[in-house]
From TrEMBL:
Belongs to the NPH3 family. Coiled coil: none annotated. It comes from the Eukaryota. This is Root phototropism protein 2. InterPro entries: BTB/POZ_dom, NPH3/RPT2-like, NPH3_dom, SKP1/BTB/POZ_sf. Residues 193-472 form the NPH3 domain. Pathway: Protein modification; protein ubiquitination. The keyword Phosphoprotein applies. Residues 38-106 form the BTB domain. It holds the Pfam family BTB. One of its GO terms (biological process) is protein ubiquitination.
């Protein structure tokens, strides 16, 4: 004799439900309200549902076909793991079959619409079926405002390709792009760019569809860039917006799964940039470029960012350049190649513009070029303290700025002094290399006074500063600026050249003296050797006789003097003696 609990089919089915799956427990309240035992189990992934065939067949043509076409006489289990939306969507579709009320929302309408299409729950099976109910909700509620359309598009990301086939994706994109363009031109709430935050929940493929649709509707570059900036800051929060580096593990390998995903996301975002170079603020571009360097993004990606930064480099600040230069923890320097390319690209563009306008770049630089020169010099002063910064890299950046762009070299001198102070082990030649990018004649009076007393500078640089001040004192002139500095530089170069020639002449003269001294020593040695070999010694009389012989007028001619009176030397007038008596 069975117990009451065992004789009650509803209680027996509920007991089995608890032992089979949590999904069956969730559906127990409405499935077992029928006093008929379940006769089919539906598997959806890892979840299983014990249901009644006649309830499913009444509204799902797909389930009806499976049962009718089955080779088993009494089909007791079917697998619907491929249903869009998974177990959650099937559970609501099954509730609909049982007539159980549930709420359709913007979050589940897309999955329910796809599930209804998969299960063929259309009006062909029964009137006002799930497909038509969800379609009405989409048109009348979900796709009537921007926020609802964004949520629907987000839910479609897991429902492909069914959501594409049902045109849910395209309809959502059209609504979002139209509403976003309208909000950009006529804001309906504050802050005016609230709609950009709404788009940030989308994945990059859906976001790309929206941006493309907005472009087709004629959205301005500023509108597009505003959406891209918010999206990048939200999706790459730790890399773009948070400069402190909190939460970033620098020990992660470059090919880790997270890094690969971030790299692909960054490259996709950059591919959406509008063609206008000045569409983005420079600090945002610098943050993205540092992100690209850290993630080891493609060369095309980094080149695009470098070109855009160089196009608006006149607006860059020292902090922006420092963002490019350091790792996220601020402890070590990146490779400064990107900084060099950015500055080089800006200088080349300025020169090209000046030549195109018929000007002479060497005579006068633009205000933007002078502003960039001051920024670069200040930037060098900030990175000069790092031991990893080599002399070649320091000079490479300093020499990128044309000398004509600097009104004076005070900021550059400050950077050089900081570098020499932070690298105390440099020898004289290395210190001269560091100072080679600076013109001591373009220092202000205070800077020259400081340089003349600076023991860290090489001797040549100190002498230049002192010599310049001496010339100023001698001429009695005031600090006359660049033209006078150029003239003084020419005079100084001439004096230095003359001093070098004098040193060379002194050296040659000393060599000649030594050469003559050696000859004299050799001659004296030879004379002594000849005397010791047996040559007769000269006596006083022989020496005197030889001397008097030099005064003999007849030594080289005839003793006949008759011809002397007839020959007169016409070239030399005869000397006459005049006497006064």
């Amino acid at each position: 004799m069975s117990t009451p609990s065992s004789s009650n089919p509803r209680r027996r089915s509920l007991t089995m439900e608890r032992t089979v799956s949590p999904a069956m427990q969730r559906t127990g309240q409405w499935v077992f309200s029928q006093d008929i035992p379940t006769d089919i189990v539906v598997d959806v992934g890892e979840a299983s549902f014990s249901l009644h065939k006649f309830m499913l067949v009444a509204k799902s043509n797909y389930v009806r076909k499976l049962i009718l076409e089955s080779k088993e006489s009494d089909l007791g289990r079917i697998d619907l793991s491929n249903i869009p939306g998974g177990a959650e969507a099937f559970e609501k579709a099954a509730k609909f079959c049982y007539g159980v009320n549930f709420e359709i929302t913007v979050h589940n309408v897309a999955s329910l619409r796809c599930a209804a299409e998969y299960l063929q729950m259309t009006d062909k099976s029964c009137e006002n079926n799930l497909a038509s109910r969800t379609e009405d909700f989409l048109c009348q509620v979900a796709l009537t405002n921007l926020s609802g359309a964004v949520i629907v598009l987000k839910s479609c990301e897991d429902l492909l390709p069914m959501a594409l086939d049902l045109n849910i994706v395209q309809r959502s994109v059209d609504v979002i792009s139209a509403k976003a363009c309208n909000e950009a031109n006529f804001p309906s709430r504050t802050p005016p760019n609230w709609w950009t935050d709404e788009l940030s929940i989308l994945d990059v493929a859906s976001f790309q569809k929206v941006i493309t649709a907005m472009r087709l509707r004629g959205a301005k570059s500023l509108t597009i860039s505003s959406a891209i900036i918010t999206y990048a800051e939200k999706s790459l929060r730790d890399l773009v917006r948070d400069h402190s580096g909190n939460g970033i593990k620098f020990s992660d390998p470059a090919n880790s799964e997270l890094r690969i995903q971030q790299r692909e996301l960054l490259e996709s975002i950059i591919s959406l940039f509008p063609s206008e170079k000045a569409a983005f603020p420079v600090h945002f571009l610098c943050s993205l470029l540092r992100c690209a360097i850290y993630l080891k993004a493609s060369t095309i990606c980094k080149n695009e960012l470098e070109k855009r930064i160089s196009a608006i480099l006149e607006h860059v600040t020292v902090d922006d350049l420092l963002v490019l230069s350091f790792t996220y923890d601020g402890e070590s320097l990146f490779d400064l190649e990107s900084v060099r390319k950015v500055i080089s690209g800006f200088v080349s563009r300025e020169k090209s513009v000046d030549v195109f306008n018929g000007g002479n770049f060497r005579e006068a630089c633009s205000a933007s070029m002078q502003r960039v020169a001051r920024t670069v010099d200040s930037y060098l002063g900030e990175i000069a303290t790092y031991a990893a910064l080599s002399i070649s890299k320091f000079n490479a950046i300093a020499n990128l700025v044309p000398k004509e762009a600097r009104r004076n070299d005070d900021d550059l001198y400050r950077a050089i002094d900081i570098y020499l102070k932070s690298h105390p082990n440099l020898d004289e030649i290395e210190r001269e290399k560091v100072c080679s990018s600076m013109d001591p004649l373009k220092l202000s009076y205070d800077a020259r006074v400081h340089a003349s007393q600076n023991k860290r500078l090489p001797v040549q640089m100190v002498l230049h500063a002192l010599y310049y001040d001496q010339l100023k004192l001698r001429s009695g002139a005031n600090d006359g600026g660049l033209p006078e500095a150029v003239a003084t530089r020419g005079q100084l170069q001439a004096d230095v050249s003359l001093a070098k020639e004098n040193e060379a002449l002194k050296s040659e003269l000393m060599k000649m003296k030594m050469y003559i001294s050696d000859i004299q020593k050799n001659k004296a040695t030879t004379s002594k050797t000849s005397t010791s070999a047996g040559m007769p010694k000269k006596t006083f009389f022989s020496s005197m006789s030889k001397t008097l012989g030099k005064f003999n007028p007849f030594k080289h001619g005839s003793k006949d003097t008759s011809h002397l009176e007839d020959e007169v030397d016409l070239t030399k007038p005869r000397r006459r003696r005049f006497s006064i008596s």
